[in-house]
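Posting this for the archive.
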Amino acid sequence: MADRAVARPTGPTRDPEAETTGSHRSPLAAESVGFLLSQLGSAGSRGFAEELAPLGIEPRQFAMLRYVGAGEGQSQQALGSALHIPASRMVAMVDELEDRGLLERRQNPGDRRSHALFLTGKGHKLLAKAFAVASAHEATVCASLTGAERSQLLHLLQKVGATLEVTAGVHPELIAPERH
């Protein structure tokens, strides 16, 4: 039996799915949902951090103040568990905010072994300013969207988050170790 040369296509390969759905596959990263989400997340986080900087806090500190403010009196352990923050990381974050006079630990009357977390007056004031910054940042990010488009985008992103098993309301920056 003689060896036969097999004809190989020399141009772009056919994509049967694209032919039937009308979609076109492109190597452009901007057409990749995963890449675009990563790119937007990075840009959004960087911009938000820059906007919070004049207040002297970082996004992870804002998030912690927000969670404490929303549930004052919770134990440090309960809050860390709800946010999926390892105990050692939680202690360091609370220490840092307590040292700055933004929150305080109080003895939990129901359990002497645990501490309840509360914002100080200074913490409440800073949190109000940070919420104003966050609101302005959200308005900037969504400036090109109508209200209906923003709602639709939020819904779609929540679906993607559920698929990726992202814990709703918990930013990875809270969980990640510090990068110094």
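Residues 1-22 have pLDDT under 50 and may be disordered. The beta strands are 103-108, 111-119.
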